[in-house]
């Protein structure tokens, strides 16, 4: 018996007129005109069916705290850092959970299926750690949550960060984090990476480092990260997040750095929305865009995924948990406007972060988890262009969110009665 049957779907790889049969929480078959009785059938009407969106870099401990205790009036990173310092003493276990759950409601409505969140471990109470571990259990039926132990004030710079990070991992946090460029010296930053990677290796954990989130061309901790990855055999298990210093490095150095990153099988996670607003802050003109060398990393064969980073928190006052908005900013800011590159940005918010996070059973293929979203668009590029409406969100073969098809009604003589943005797609989507 088919639990859920999606008919007449367009898939991200370009196949059209496809049916998707789901049974026992898994994709049972993908083929044209699947026969069989189904408990529930949804006609996709030619719209795009995609695996769920994934946010591979987020800070859920701070999300939706905008305005507490005050607004970031300047909209700058430095004021945001100060605000987080003011907010932390005011945090309560219950409030962190409430805001995180509200954010996850929003994320599900936008077709999000998994999130990797960093959590600040520099508060000796580990209040946010314990809160997000509880959130992880609560949302498990509809969102996969990975938690990164993140010493936001510096692994060595903060007096108790090291012991707190170990405590967080003992409590069940999934991933080892760090911020080497925020240590007091370059040497401390490099040493922190060495120790953090050793901790991950001993515990069999993944690594995700806020690495060189600066315009300084001499901030080169990604080099150390790649080297430690090789030394400890962590190939494929390590993410360098942001990597914004790479846009300031000279080409000769980068020509040596990228092959080292490839040898280490690093994953790269830029965060277009927040980096385009907070990087280049010491520049006049020319002003740097705030993203890493995405085209060069891609061409070298590195796995690159996008993260949202922040939504309505001390650092970033905007955002709506929409990974298509993130993809769109990546296209515009890098820029990546070839047909191939624009198509790739859809992968950067779906399959690529799944790879970086080592998610099992992700994808649209027989045997994968029956998790997907039906978008009011005809192909991935159109989905990004439109920030497409999420018509149906499915988890384990069950509908968990729905939206009505969006269109406008015109009252203009001689013109169509309705306008559907998805109808404006070019006839040739190649």
Q: Key terms for this structure?
A:
four-stranded mixed β-sheet; 2 domains; 18 strands; 430 residues; TIM Barrel; alpha/beta; 13 helices; eight-stranded parallel β-sheet
The level 1 CATH classification of the largest domain is: Alpha Beta
The unreliable regions are none
Number of domains: 2
Mean pLDDT figure: 96
Question: What does the main sheet amount to?
Answer: 8 strands, parallel
The spatial strand order of the largest sheet comes to: 6-7-8-9-10-11-12-13
- Superfamily (CATH H level) name of the largest domain: Metal-dependent hydrolases
Q: Per DSSP, what share of the residues sits in E-state strands of 2 or more residues? A: 15-25%
**Apparent shape:** globular
> How many β strands by DSSP?
18
- Label the structural class: alpha/beta
- How far the N terminus sits from the C terminus, by CA atoms, comes to 37 Å
Helix content: 25-40%
Count of helical stretches: 13
CATH topology call of the largest domain: TIM Barrel
CATH architecture of the largest domain: Alpha-Beta Barrel
* Alpha carbon gyration radius: 22 Å
């Amino acid at each position: 018996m088919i639990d859920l049957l999606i008919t007449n779907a367009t898939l991200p790889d370009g196949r059209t007129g496809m049916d998707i049969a789901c049974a026992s929480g898994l994709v049972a078959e993908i083929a044209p005109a699947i026969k069989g009785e189904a408990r529930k059938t949804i006609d996709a009407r030619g719209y795009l069916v995609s695996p769920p969106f994934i946010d591979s870099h987020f800070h859920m401990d701070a999300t939706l705290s905008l305005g507490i205790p005050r607004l970031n009036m300047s909209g700058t990173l430095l004021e945001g850092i100060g605000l987080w310092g003011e907010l932390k003493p005011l945090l309560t276990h219950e409030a962190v959970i409430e805001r995180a759950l509200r954010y996850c409601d929003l994320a599900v409505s936008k077709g999000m299926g998994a999130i990797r969140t960093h959590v600040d471990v520099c508060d000796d109470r580990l209040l946010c750690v314990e809160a997000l571990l509880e959130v992880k259990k609560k949302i498990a039926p509809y969102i996969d949550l990975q938690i990164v132990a993140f010493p936001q004030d510096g692994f060595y710079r903060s007096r108790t960060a090291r012991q707190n990070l170990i405590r967080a991992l003992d409590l069940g946090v999934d991933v080892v984090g760090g911020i080497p460029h925020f240590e007091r010296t370059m040497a401390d930053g490099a040493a922190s990476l060495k120790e953090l990677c050793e901790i991950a290796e001993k515990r069999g954990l993944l690594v995700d480092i806020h690495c060189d989130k600066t315009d300084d061309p001499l901030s080169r901790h990604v080099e150390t990260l790649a080297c430690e990855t090789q030394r400890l055999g962590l190939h494929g298990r390590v993410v360098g997040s942001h990597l914004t210093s790479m846009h300031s490095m000279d080409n000769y150095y980068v020509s040596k750095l990228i092959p080292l990153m490839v040898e280490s099988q690093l994953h790269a996670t830029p965060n277009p929305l927040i980096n385009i607003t907070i990087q280049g802050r010491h520049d006049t003109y020319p002003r740097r865009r705030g993203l890493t060398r995405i085209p060069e990393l891609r061409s070298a064969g590195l796995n690159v995924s996008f993260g949202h980073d922040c939504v309505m928190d001390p650092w970033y006052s905007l955002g709506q948990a929409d990974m298509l908005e993130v993809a769109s900013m990546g296209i515009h800011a890098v820029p990546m406007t070839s047909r191939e590159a624009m198509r790739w940005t859809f992968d950067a918010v779906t399959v690529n972060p799944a790879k970086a996070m080592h998610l099992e059973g992700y994808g649209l293929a027989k045997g994968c988890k029956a998790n997907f979203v039906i978008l009011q668009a005809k192909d991935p590029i159109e989905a990004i262009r439109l920030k497409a409406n999420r018509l149906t969100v499915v988890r384990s073969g069950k509908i968990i969110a729905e939206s009505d098809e969006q269109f406008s009604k015109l009252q203009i003589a001689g013109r169509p009665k309705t306008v559907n943005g998805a109808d404006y797609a070019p006839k040739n989507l190649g």
